[in-house]
TrEMBL record:
Compartments, record wording: Cell membrane
Record-annotated membrane-spanning stretches: 33-57, 69-92, 104-124, 174-196, 216-245, 251-272
Domain of life: Archaea
Domain (Type II secretion system protein GspF): residue spans on this chain: 107-232
The entry's keywords: Cell membrane, Membrane, Transmembrane, Transmembrane helix
Name of the protein: Type II secretion system protein GspF domain-containing protein
Membrane topology (UniProt): Multi-pass membrane protein
Gene Ontology cellular-component annotations: plasma membrane
InterPro entries per the UniProt record, alphabetical: ArlJ-like, T2SS_GspF_dom
Amino acid sequence: MYSFLHSFYRGLDVDRFVVGSGLSPSLERYVSIVFKLIICILASMSLIVSIFLYSIYGLDLYLSTAISFVFDLSIALPISIAFSIVLPKFMYSNRGSIVESKMPILLSAMAFLSSAGLSLHEIVSKIYTFLGDDYRFFSVELDIVRSYTRIGVPLEEALRYVAHLTPSQSFRELLLGLSSISVIGGDIGSFIRSMFDRYVSRYELMIEKAVNNLNVYMEVYVAVSLLVPVLAGSTAVLFILSPIAGISFEAFMALVTFILIPIPSAVIIVLADTIVSRLRP
């Protein structure tokens, strides 16, 4: 099963999401952890289902065990594998938004080190001391580059490999550009300035898109805030005039007050906060 998971994940390019999200330093380690967790989940679910069928429904022990195995193979196993694929992709996308918003910090640090006369190799080697606590946002990619160069991998190859892993578009463009500079040469400072200009242009588009999305959410929020109380009041009058068996007026008002109004509002607030947090540097 371990070999199957490893081949299956590699065929779906899950290794890029696993490493790029910072979830695990390698696909092999991630598969090892997932394999152990799946075994524990299947064993636990098999035991729970067997005990449930045996004690509640009074089925034969062997039949209960057989049904639990079928349940594991048909439901628990596919769900576990699907979750192990979706989780890295979700974390990959989330980290991409964070790294994208922190790119000005990295670009400023590289521009400063470049103006100090450091070579590209020296910039990559020493930038962690200059970034301080902010290094954690870029540590996945930069740690791999530093590790690869220590074992003799050419800097341009290490940069290209990491560019394939990173979830941030701006960081990918930066790494590919630095890889080209390390091969054919060029002015690092000029390249960093061009990256700044490109990032600002992209950031303006992101802000415009975010504002449009927020406007849509606010329209939905206003519509929900205005329409739901009106509809609830009209329906409440109907309940008073013509009660429905099994549904009291008090239960209906509790449903509207504590569920129909607060939950949509909370969802819209969470969505709006998510959009703003992606733009927050």
